[in-house]
Amino acid sequence: MPEPTQSWNALRSFMASTCGVALADDQSYLMEARLSPVAKTLNYRSVDEYVLEAVRPGAPTRVTAPLIDAMTTHETYWFRDAPFWKALQDQVIPRLGLTEPGSNRNFTIWLAACSTGQEVYSLTMFLEENFPPLHQRTTIIATDVSEAAVQQAKAGVYTVFEANRGLSAPRLVKHFERAGANFKVKEHLRRKVTFVTHNLVTQAPPGIGFDLVLMRNVLIYFPEATRRAVVQRAMGVMKPNGLLGIGATELLTLPSLSPGWYPKSA
């Protein structure tokens, strides 16, 4: 196995310190595969030259942002992980007491690592279908480290291929409108969400007083120390009875309500 190049070591260090992403020794192929098109578009002679320029202190955002976009994972689809939605309906929302008769309390949610928007729009659809009055009182902040992903999510426009990844035909008809050859999330659902480019590792949370903080399938990319710090900050901006939702296969050393759901710790 060849020795790691200077650019690969620099990239690993940059991604760990900037985004909390731990790239493994055997993932060096990702640098060439993901950054070669970016380097070509930005007129660099090689991937190595581009990486060393992008990770230097003071590098302009126009150079650094495409690297972060390319090296972070944006795999997502609609209504991912059925047990998550069942627990949300049967356990989480009832526990919060927001649907009790006479309740008019607002429902506040921070959804981190929103990628290109499928998860957060699944959430708005879910609430509209199952808890219509609560949906009216819901506000959501959705964040991601990737500016490109945030901009696509904010637009809410998806190709036929993207729409087919988890959306039923009735939901597609009910919650979307045609946008040329694509599908666009209806405006009243898009208005429920404020999208913000945000770094979980280096920036403070984008607000306080959240009933729910959702960080599904993002903590797995962080080393343990970073994971603990991110969770601690999330717990700090939750209401006293708030809940943290993570991927069902991700585990924290905290008492859980059900797989993937953790009440605010003391």
Please give the structural blueprint.
Layout: H1 6-19, H2 29-41, H3 47-54, H4 61-71, H5 82-96, E1 107-111, H6 118-130, H7 132-136, E2 138-144, H8 147-155, E3 157-158, H9 160-163, H10 169-175, E4 176-179, E5 182-185, H11 187-190, E6 193-197, E7 210-215, H12 224-236, E8 238-246, E9 261-263
Parallel strand pairs: 1-2, 1-7, 2-6, 7-8
Antiparallel strand pairs: 3-5, 4-5, 8-9
Helix pairs in contact: 1-3, 2-3, 2-4
| Poorly predicted segments | none
Name the strands of the widest sheet in spatial order.
Answer: 6-2-1-7-8-9
Structural class: alpha/beta
What is the terminal separation in angstroms? 47 Å
**Count of domains:** 2
Percent of residues in β-strands: 15-25%
Supply the number of helical segments: 12
Q: What top-tier CATH class of the largest domain fits best? A: Alpha Beta
Shape assignment: globular
CATH topology of the largest domain: Rossmann fold
Q: What's the mean pLDDT score? A: 89
What CATH architecture of the largest domain do you see?
3-Layer(aba) Sandwich
Features:
266 residues, alpha/beta, Chemotaxis Receptor Methyltransferase Cher, domain 1, Rossmann fold, 2 domains, 6-stranded mixed beta sheet, 3-stranded antiparallel beta sheet, 12 helices, 17% strand, globular
